[in-house]
Design goal:
Distance between the termini: 21 Å
Strand order of the largest sheet: 5-4-3-6-7-9-8-10
Radius of gyration: 17 Å
Largest sheet: 8 strands, mixed
CATH superfamily: Vaccinia Virus protein VP39
Strand content: 25-35%
Number of strands: 10
Helix content: 25-40%
Number of helices: 8
Amino acid sequence: MPNDYFQFQQFRIEQGQSAMKVSTDACLLGAAADLTGATRLLDIGTGTGLLALMAAQRHATVEIEAVEIDASAADQAAANAAASPWAPRIHVHALSLAEYAAQQPTPFSHIICNPPFFRQSLRSPDAARTTARHEADDTLSFEALAAFVTAFLQPGGLLTVLLPPQEMLAFETVAAAVGLFPATRLVVRHRPGSRPLRHITGFLASPAATIETELTIRTAEDDQAYSVAFRALLAGFYLAL
């Protein structure tokens, strides 16, 4: 059973009120997202506030908005942000994406999201976990995410999304229909030669050749040992690697 907290080098995530706990997926997304030139960042579906806090640690001046539909999780994300060294730069909103859009926020230079992606699988009896893990018409669909981004991403801005490969292909189709195209793709594997687990893809509002790179979490020799690349990426966050 996951702990009610996760201690990072520079901040602590309390997660007892959030359906989705700290995960390797989220840590990779928070560490790998390209924040070059970021001035105003939105974390959609912030959960515990992890991605917002990682962005604040990585970028000394970026202003961060975070949206979370689950009120209990949003409260905890706000508390995690308030307890961090970057509290003045992080603002958490307990709203759906549609409700947040209705407030007409100032456009963002970077939007980051680990969206619900179990589109066809069996749903959890835990309603909060289902909302966090499954795409639903009344929560966050790929279409709703893409439409929001086209409305509120600054010219030249970047959308970074983490999804499994099959779901990423589906999202790319939806994104292309509204003028968002993959510019970078990080393929995440458990170990060298294993099937891809996740894609972390950066989208721009103009077609371009996609630059693809790979990251393996574990080494080929030892399934319990982190790879050199994984260690380097998370070196500023994990207490021990």
